[in-house]
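Protocol step 4 of 6: structure prediction from sequence.
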Amino acid sequence: MKLKIFSFQQINWSDKEFLSACIIALSIMASLAVGLMILQLPLRNSLLIVMGICGCIIIFIKPVSGLLIGILFYYFFGSGIQYVTGTWNLRIIFWITLATGISWLLYMMVQKRYRFVKCPQNFALLGLLISMYYSTFYAGDTVACLEFCHGIGKMLIFYLLLINLIESFRFFNLTYWAIGLGGGGLSLLGIKYSIGTGMSRVELGGGTQLGGSNELAGMLIMILPFFFYKIFSHKILEKSMALSFFFSTLFCIILTGSRGGTLGLLVVLILFCIRTQQRLKSLTILGIIVILCIIFTPATYWERMSTINEYQADGSAMSRIELWKFALNIWKSHPFEGIGQENFRLISPGRLVVHNTYLTLLVEGGLQALFFYLLAIFLSFRDIRFIIRHSPQEFEGLHIHNLASSLGIGLSGFLVSALFGSKVALEPLYWFLGLIVALKQIVKTNKNLIKSGTSALI
């Protein structure tokens, strides 16, 4: 039995065969996912479990495909399912992550090619996780705190798989496209929801990790730069898809009505104007799309955004300011130990969350949790600068500088939007941190690509 397992792991597929297999598998799974939406429980969940098992088989043959399958399940089935009402909640993406990790370890053992990427971000994120677990000792609700910490731990496992399994520019681009297309698909769902219900704010609700308007806006802001830079791709298919999804993503950010999302979007648009090398063409395309979005933007959006300047007259804005003041006062009493993850709502007025990622980390995890979180992000920006300085602008049809720039701009927009939402557990953030590390490692390992003296964009 072991010999058969090892023979599967030793299959040597060409890039074209692997890419074709991934496209076919993902297309079939996506088609099934759409069809299953009309089915009732438990039949729908039974088929989802079958799809998960089929995904694990593909992962076993080619471990790196687990990244694409995991991302797909996160977008559409990330909240978990119950096979029978009242039974244990099954989160398929965790089992896909586990299968990917086991397959990767087996692959290294069979090939006798052991590889584990070491980088400062690993230690920073480990410090963040330890800080969160440390706060459990001071939590009023230890169960909620531990569940949150376990969730972050699972996200970091996927992060580790990203940085170790992505070893080529080609697969980096494919993974980035999977993240982008998943988010772009959600933007189309958001626009459809707004048109169909007539609601002024997009709320996708259950069935996805990005159901809330603030979470959805934060994710879409991160992938918007990817679509923008892909508009300048040499490939017609990439160019056309990027143009379509850039418009839908931008418009869906507006439809979320998120004030933090709007500020993050402004930062992204400003960075587009500053960082782009094809300034005239970029500004022309950007201007046309923005004008179209402004024309079709509902009046309720402008009314809500006006509260940013006149926040004293808005009850929602003032309540958040009061929450921030309350959180700071609580933190002063627990500067290093924190009060435990997910425990602020137990003592806050109205049992509300902080609605600020940085204050959430500070009050629930202590000063050290915020330090490690910001350190990981700072190191990621430093890596982006390294990538742009030590790689050519293009390689094998991929514009490496644009890919790196899109990661940096998307991360910048997210950091601003995080001022108005508690997004510590937004999983795509850790994907971005992993992509940055993976891209840097690819540049470093391809010695022939290193090109000193290249001017930095970020």
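Step 5 (inspection) to follow. Residues 190 and 270 are 25 Å apart (CA to CA).
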